[in-house]
Automatic annotation (TrEMBL):
All residue ranges annotated as the Pyrroline-5-carboxylate reductase dimerisation domain in the record: 159-263
Protein name: Pyrroline-5-carboxylate reductase
Ligand binding (NADP(+)): 67-70
EC number: 1.5.1.2
Family: Belongs to the pyrroline-5-carboxylate reductase family.
SUPFAM superfamilies in alphabetical order: 6-phosphogluconate dehydrogenase C-terminal domain-like (SSF48179), NAD(P)-binding Rossmann-fold domains (SSF51735)
Recorded catalytic activity of this chain's protein: L-proline + NADP(+) = (S)-1-pyrroline-5-carboxylate + NADPH + 2 H(+); L-proline + NAD(+) = (S)-1-pyrroline-5-carboxylate + NADH + 2 H(+)
NCBIfam families in the cross-refs: proC (TIGR00112)
Keyword presence, Cytoplasm: yes
Amino acid sequence: MTTIAVLGAGKIGEALLSGLLNSGRGAGDLLFTERHPDRSAELTARYGIAGVEPAEAAKRADVLVVAVKPQDIEPVLTELAPVVGPETLIVSLCAGLPTSLYERRLAEGVPVVRVMPNTPMVVGEAMSAISPGSHATPAHLALVREMLSSVGEVIEVPESQQDAVTALSGSGPAYFFFLVEAMIDAGILLGLPRAVAEKLIIQSAVGAAKMLAETAEHPVILREAVTSPAGTTINAIRELEKHGVRAALLAAIEAARDRSVELGKPHDSAS
Ligand SMILES: NC(=O)C1=CN([C@@H]2O[C@H](COP(=O)(O)OP(=O)(O)OC[C@H]3O[C@@H](n4cnc5c(N)ncnc54)[C@H](OP(=O)(O)O)[C@@H]3O)[C@@H](O)[C@H]2O)C=CC1
Ligand SMILES: O=C(O)[C@@H]1CCC=N1
């Protein structure tokens, strides 16, 4: 079995470890690194996975998944440079960071795959987009696909699309959570008990998501089917349009894309 080490087991790193365990991988095939001993002990107690030093992770693992914040990448590259060779696959989950950064800083020929996942991997429903670096072979991509398809859906995209993917599906769950939060508040405004508002909105979100996934109907068709002539929904839609919610979403996602580009800037191949 492939040994996978997650470097930086924060929110997404932990989500990946937990998703891989849920999908049937053994704790003995997983490792992680963390810089705070308390966090390391907490994760080992929760999952039975060993926390190790980066050099040991590089020695024992076939795949090193980099899951530190993009701003924290420099020391990680410095630690990995002397201990990683072409037999180890690097999988970067970091927003904005190009595969060329790893290729430049690590030994010649080290294969790198850039991935943008999202947190629903905790429940086996991640959306992950993968892009090969210049030394990643079809076998490396297949290995990453196999690893990530055990925690959700996987598509391959050109690396040039990864900043847009990051803005859409990497950050995407946050937009839905924000919407749900606001709709629950609306229930409170209308005088419903919080628990009732939460139940109504969460199940409506689950139902709507299932309809999108399972009927394969366009969202416009599904929305029109809810919108009765002279009914309630059209009144709400008019308010959403009046408040520019569609334009706000376009601007918000564009801003997220711009931030991903900015996070990669200090590391792009020209600098
Ligand atoms: N959260 C998400 O939904 C998604 C995140 N990502 C990407 O994943 C990466 C991590 O994001 P997220 O999980 O949110 O961030 P977190 O800050 O929660 O996780 C990063 C973890 O790495 C630790 N860390 C930092 N430096 C080192 C190091 N040198 N060695 C070992 N551990 C280290 C951090 O410790 P400390 O607490 O001390 O900083 C922290 O626990 C980012 O690059 C982000 O772009 C991608 C897709 C989705
Ligand atoms: O907010 C972020 O920067 C990370 C990347 C995508 C989701 N979370």
